[in-house]
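Mods, move this if it's the wrong board.
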Amino acid sequence: MSDGKYRFIKFNQRNQDNLRTEGGGKDNIYPWTLNGDDLKKHSETLIEQLNFIESAAKPSIEDFPYILTVNILDDAKAKSHQNKLISMFNVDNSFAQLGMISENKLILKLDQEESIKKATKNLKQLEKNQNSISAITEIKQFEPNIIVDEKEDVYKINLIDFHNNKLNKDVLSYIEQQLKNEDISFERQEYSKNHNVIEVTGVTLDKLTFIKELPVKNIEPMPSVENPFLDNNTFNKNEIPYIGFEPTKIYPMVGLLDSGVTILPQLKGFVRRGNGCNYMDSELNTNHGTFIAHLLVHGNNLNGVNDYSVDGCIVVDCPVVRRGSTSEPQLIKNIEDAISSNPEVKIWNLSVSLKGELSEDNKFSDYAVELDRIQDEYNVLICKSAGNDGDSYIIGDEPKRISIGADSVRSLTVGSISRYADNFGFSKENHPAPYSRVGRGPAAIIKPDVVHYGGDIFSLSAAPTSIIDYENKGERSILADGSEKIEPGTSFSTPKIAKLLAELYLALNMNSETFDPLLLKTLVIHSANYLDSANIEGLERLKRMGFGKPKNSKEIVIQDSPHSTTLLLTGNLRKKTRIDIMDFPYPRNLTKGNYFTGEIKVTLVYKNYLSKEMGPEYCQSDIVLRMGTYDKLIDRDTSVNTILNPIGRLDSKNILQKNVYGTRKITKNNDFLKERTLIEYGDKYYPVKKFSAHLDEAKDSVQRKHLTKDRKWFLFLEGQYRDFIYQQLEQEDSHMSMDFVLAVTITDPTKTKDVYTETIRELDRHNFEFEMVDVDVNVEIESLGNTDEVIVSSL
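Not the wrong board. Structure tokens:
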């Protein structure tokens, strides 16, 4: 590059790389498949269970369906098994599956007695339905799940979605009438158009038992907002060189969903009140929001650090919590009102958590589900704090699981790491902060996504036993009255990531029309590593720190060395198609002796389908990612029913697999500890996938067979869809597809070879369309409406 900078290379797959998804073979007999008398007896048992439900559970509403819980074997959880099993109960071409309770408990419906008879007939067809009958362990009448907390008297009732508007309304009216009959106080809460809950107050255990008899999905305490600060007693006073607001500069912009901001003199020009706020100033306690606003605007100077590439920030203040208590439904409404009323704001900081931690039943929280919906509907990206546990570390326990809402799939969830180490090894530099809540999220998704510095807690003794044995060491910021406070928390690591995103938004020349949350999310996660915390065991590190701490925006968008290159592939992957790039442009000069070498980092982020009814299978679609080498291309026989693509690869090896790499070699290569990310994704529907490996760590057998320099490289992407979303969208006549962003960075570990130029040669040689991503790092533009010069803040 003439300016000595090496930008991302965005390339497109060619027409020849777009292939058709091929079907599988015939149904197999599995080790768990029953046959003979065992199959017959099992079938008879299931039919008896179904008949018992028919006799014992007469529907309370006319035309109200029977609701069943169908338990299945752990070995039969694959979507192919579920699809055929559910079809036995889909006897009238309606939507048979209503949801999931756990990975092996399905909620199904049968409309009336005639449907039960048809399902019974299917259970008798032993040869046709041999695997499906064998997969079922039990059929029971569905019972709502009740979570009781004796300290709470406000509960919420989640309703079953029958995928029938009239039936949903009839059931809702019936439930409300029954609550009135029992003199139970309630209020209908509309989280969204298709998500109603009923809030009930003053309930007792007896009343909860009554509610359990109603046709509802579950009953649990109504969450409310927790105290945002870990404590209220650490203050300090220093001279702070605040930066001044310059009207001729364009600053990064972040929307602040918090407690409100008191605009002190040093915030003037930087902070403005946004639209859509539902509270008067007199209803607010603005300490928490003011603290975060100062971190966004003056964080570098306040703490003597370089967490941001840009000093200053435009903060659009939208208070969503008031003094005292704010309930979950009100919080969700406030967040949506704020985001919908400020369409120019695309990146939002949400350091507001609900009391409690995620349940262990792998159910995604209602708060998270609504945050996902809001982000999809308004095309925004929310940075959500992982939550604090200010009690466990005091007694030597591990922090509790991430807070309610931190399981949001679309959000970037942020945990905290310690900036400095104390004298007793309690807090270690760049290691997880002792108060930062831990993952994983429901269905084992990786949460938090990333971490940043959120303030330290130091031990004052070798054997701390109480709160007085600890000292807060930051972050330093300012409260609403102008006083200074030192406070730790994930509330304060989260704005570091929000501002990083806002800086990238400017650097990549985005606007409200071209905003791409997938791209920003990909770049942040792709850049993250584990710094000096790499000695933490891999799975524990993932649980505590997600993918690690991202680089700053300047380091992300511009490389100063030709020894590395980052390729970006973006697009939309339609169902029944795959992308198979059989000439992936791996630099041919990146070899050592007879073998390919290099550090490879791959990150995939995609917009998957989500379904709130499906519990642990909330994520309803997946993209399979493979990258590796193969021997040669071969012709394929398309006259075979399952073969649709005439050209294929021979002897392919996916290098994005943990078992490719040798433990002994990994142990010896300490220089790569902070970068290494080896995750076995398998059949997990993770919405973010990342893999980082050093080819020199491959097992000798893999190197000899699959990494010789005469082999070719490929990149493969294919969508997968669970049966539930497939059936739902097929009824709606919707075309299924997923937007995605893939980043691949290839680096020469010896820093001697021009990887960047060689990659461009490979792209040219194989006729790819590509371009260098335009990045503004110091640009002059004209302001709107006048001829004053405006300077974009330099990265």
